[in-house]
Hints:
Elements: H1 4-9, H2 22-40, H3 69-80, H4 83-93, H5 95-99, H6 101-106, E1 107-113, E2 116-121, H7 124-132, H8 134-145, E3 152-156
Parallel strand pairs: 2-3
Antiparallel strand pairs: 1-2
Amino acid sequence: MTDPQDVHNSSPESPEPPAKSGIELAREALAQARADAAKRGSVPGQGKRKGPRGPRVPQPGRGGDPKLFGSAIRELMADRGWEQRAAVGGVFGNWPGIVGPELAEHTRPEKFEDGELTVAADSTTWATQLRLLSSTLVKRLNEELGHNTVRRVKVVGPSSGPRRTGAWRVR
């Protein structure tokens, strides 16, 4: 039983309303945000865009349906004109697979410019061997890269430093 004095000691104010649920609080916050946006003259969710919002037109290179990563990369490389450069980079990375492990151990591709692949050899013997194989190498590279991508293979041997000028000497 409750003590009659406790009932009389309670404050004569009106009873507190029940606490609001989360959904009610969210609805009130949304209503307040809409009212604030209406005062500013904007519609929530549209930023500073003016005028009616029509159907979305896909921009080139933007959005659209998802694509497989490989096809998206190939499309990007084709759009930017990077196909040949990427293929040549693949040749540099797979040099042993193209020329064989023994030749790759003694040679390395240096640069590719205007259809000419420059290859460095670590000795004059391997440079001569590569020169003898250059027409076969051009055919093999064009199989990898596409017709007429490589027109010439330039072979450079090891540099022995500057030659001394003057008369020939016998020691």
